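Good morning C.,

I know you're traveling, so I'll keep this short. The sequence:
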Amino acid sequence: MKGRSVYILILSVGVASASCRKPYAPEITSNSTSLLVVEGVINPGNDSTFITLSHTVKISDTVKTAAERGATVAVESSSTTRPLTEISPGVYSALPLNLDTTQQYHLRIKLTNGKEYVSDYEKPKLTPPIDTVTYTIKDTSLQINASAHDPSNRTHYYRWDYSEAWRFNSKFYSSFKVVNGTIYPRLPAEDIFSCFSSAKSSSIVLGSSVKLAQDVISKALITTIISSSEKISIRYSILIKQYALTKEAFAFYENLKKNTEQLGSIFDALPSEIGGNIHNTTNPAEPVIGYVGVSTVQTKRIFIDKEELPATWIIQYPFNCTQDTALFNNPKTKLNEVKAFILTNLTLPTLTLRAKAPDTTLLGYYRTDFICGDCTLRGTKKRPTFWKDK
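The tokens, ready to paste straight into the viewer:
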């Protein structure tokens, strides 16, 4: 494998004497906790290229990585340079490059501190299409699978990532809103009951056909969704992206996968060596995390409806939600609970609370926590452009 080996985890050794043991706290330099992380693939075809630059942070920090802003990033061959533009903090992109697949390419990065990095030159790999995306129903989970094959028998090494989207409802329907201390009926356009949410893959999914007689991947497990997940409460969609890898890139991701599965996420401390293909041009000994390949991308999307899944699967709302009452005049406490709990925006009004017929006097409202009645706190009302109803 090309590239320097990166040691992420520093093992401390306690020094023990015959009479007592003293704790040993090794000094960790700033360099060991702020490594450049490069994520992405150079897409030589008719789709955009995205490269993310960040730095690792201390384990004690609340964020996992820090975006690297203001860098100069370009895709280079021996004769051409194609710049990338920063479209969001640490994310650099270029419109379809449509590169000559007979040439080799690498990524050049120059940071605002003057440091410069390059990836190894690689020849573009053409990713075969995804044949099918299917799902398998288990006792307590839904498994998403992908199948592919390369009739030219040239790929052998595959990687997948994905993005999910789903529609969900809040626990309770809120028929009312509070504006300047007054309760009004909520208009249909102001509905906060039904929303969309999304997520991107955080795991490394790999497949190899190198030990098979044919270059075929059959039902590779992409992700698993538990049967009680809100993702499958109404309608769920997954877009799977497939990449062809070199043998060296596959080894890098396989090693990274083994390490991160032991500790959690991709950028947690790693207990062994991770060698990439990115180097500091003036200090090759500097560790850099990442592998930049050159590969086209194939995609396929499917939708899954709740009706397609077992009726015995019970969806669990992710919060413990209850619906209480708020009276204008609580006879026991003499408290105006509507004013105390609703007009102050402590809780959200849901339904009216009236006296029994035939009186039907408005006594107050039912109320719940905002997280239980306002789906926009966890999602968006904006419908994804790709979304299709059943």
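Safe travels,
E.
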